Amino acid sequence: MPISRLSTLSDNFARTLRTLLAFDASQDASIERATADILLHVQEQGDQAVLEYTQRFDRVSATSLAALEIERGEWLAALDALPAAQRKALETAAERVRAYHAHQRAETWTYTEADGTVLGQKITPLDRVGLYVPGGKAAYPSSVLMNAIPAKVAGVSEVIMVTPTPDGIRNPMVLAAAAIGGVDRVWGIGGAQAVGALAYGTQTLSPVDKIVGPGNAYVAAAKRRVFGTVGIDMIAGPSEILIICDGTTPADWIAMDLFSQAEHDEMAQAILLSPNASYLDEVQAAIARLLPSMPRADIIRSSLANRGALILVQSLDEACAIANDIAPEHLEISTENPEIWAEKIRHAGAIFLGRYSSEALGDYCAGPNHVLPTSRTARFSSPLGVYDFQKRSSLIHVSKAGAQTLGQVAATLAHGEGLQAHAASAEYRLNSTESIS
Ligand SMILES: NC(=O)c1ccc[n+]([C@@H]2O[C@H](COP(=O)([O-])OP(=O)(O)OC[C@H]3O[C@@H](n4cnc5c(N)ncnc54)[C@H](O)[C@@H]3O)[C@@H](O)[C@H]2O)c1
Ligand SMILES: N[C@H](CO)Cc1c[nH]c[nH+]1
Ligand SMILES: [Zn+2]
Asked: For substrate, which residues are the binding ones (predicted)?
């Protein structure tokens, strides 16, 4: 099974690791060109461009964009028809995701100074957001919940979901999840054209204020490009898993954890760090043995061959340092006393502690969000959360007494900046004889 074996002791380790990580799919030149082209056409031609790209990439035969809206009746019917076990699992996951995200809700706050001046921060939910739910190579009902629930917990009034329907096939579990998650409208469109439609609006689809959600390299590149016209949450591209293992977790478990992210996409990245060379041999053997039975073996094989690695480290301390450099989307710490190592981790989208916390549980139902920063952006980005759907406005209510002290400070600074109107605006209120409060 071709997967790179690296050792931190080899001379070229740092360079090899960089090459392995360097590939940022959303920056790939051909993907960038194609995405720019698609966005331009959507901006210029609206509905017609979205329709044509959807026909081309998703092989959908609709003749108007309006025909690609999936009506609420269809989601409710999908929910009703869902096998009981699937419905229960979706509802359980939704409940856990809601409970977790309720902790993130920020509230408006104020405080009052001695002279009666009130300062604070007002929290307002966004008006209208677009959720991108991927659907090219797999259907993601779980991503519907992960996107929609924090938006609704934040109080967003209009939640518009887009998701591709390859060959025109509408996934019933995705539609049922839209009903459970409280989505307002659903469109069967995907890729860069869907991001463009949400950002610029078309004749049929009104623009949104912010686009959130994960997607493939085209989606990630499109989100990067429309940022500024709309807000975006982060770059959540092809999935990544980094595992630190002390060598005592069953090798099959770790092999399957690597597969679990590799199976998303040929561009997904799965890496194992261990100080135990014979354990890396065991995991490699487990990969070779288990892979042929996986339905998505081809995707897993490409992902592991192109972007995967089993890396021999000198110590778990060194593994933590490498993890911080990689800043993975998901980090599993599969060791004794994982808390000790977790304390040393500064950059990771989500940290899974202990041998029983498989990353797959976080993907579906642990509660925290599975929309996470990829491509090393965990150095500065956070998981999708309620905070992505809330914005803050500063509140400033200066009392008459406060205007006397603040007015002097402001006027002095304004004169220093040579901005006389600013100074005068503050000074008018000094020792004012006006009786207004
Ligand atoms: N980071 C996260 O939180 C997270 C969560 C779930 C999934 N993911 C990732 O999301 C991705 C989902 O990818 P997907 O492909 O299954 O679905 P997707 O919905 O992201 O992409 C499908 C769309 O890509 C476009 N496309 C495909 N080939 C194209 C081409 N040659 N030119 C232009 N456009 C093209 C099409 O419009 C198609 O509708 C995976 O990489 C997965 O790892 C990430
Ligand atoms: N691992 C993905 C985030 O990178 C999320 C997901 C959804 N379904 C399965 N996995
Ligand atoms: Zn996953």
From this structure: 239, 261, 264, 330, 363, 417, 422
Which of 370, 375, 381, when mutated, tests ligand 2's pocket best, judged by the most ligand atoms within 8 Å of its CB? 370
Q: What percentage of the chain has pLDDT greater than the value 90?
A: 93
Q: Are 20 and 307 in contact (CB under 8 A)?
A: yes
Cα–Cα distances in angstroms (integers) from residue 162 to residues 179, 278, 287, in the given order: 14, 46, 35
Amino acid present at 296: R
Percent of the chain with pLDDT over 70: 99
In the annotation, is 41 catalytic? no
330 catalytic, yes or no?
A: yes
Ligand found nearest the CA of 216: 1
DSSP class of residue 255? Answer: H
Cβ–Cβ < 8 Å for 299, 307 = no
Asked if the ipTM is above 0.90, the reply is yes
Q: Please state the CATH superfamily assignment of the domain spanning residues 46-234 in this structure.
A: Nitrogenase molybdenum iron protein domain (3.40.50.1980)
How many whole angstroms from 74 Cα to the centroid of ligand 2? 25
Task: Write the single-letter amino acid at 400.
Answer: K
Burial pattern 33-66, b for ≥16 Cβ within 10 A else e, equals ebbeebbebbbeebbebbbebbeebbebebeebe
Domain extent listing, the chain: 4-24+238-379, 46-234
- pLDDT at residue 24 above 60? no
- What is the model's pLDDT at position 25? 52
The closest alpha carbon to 406, from 430, 424, 422, belongs to 430
Q: For 210-266, write each residue's pLDDT tens digit.
A: 999 999 989 999 999 999 999 999 988 889 999 999 999 999 999 999 999 999 999
Q: Looking at 240, 263, 266, 329, which residue is catalytic?
A: 329
The reply to whether 46-234 shares the fold of 4-24+238-379 is yes
215 ligand 1 Cβ < 6 A = yes
For 4-24+238-379, which CATH superfamily applies? Answer: Nitrogenase molybdenum iron protein domain (3.40.50.1980)
Choose the residue to mutate in 260, 358, 363 for probing ligand 2, maximizing ligand atoms within 8 Å of C-beta.
363
Closest ligand by atom to 220 CA? 1
pTM to 2 decimals? 0.94
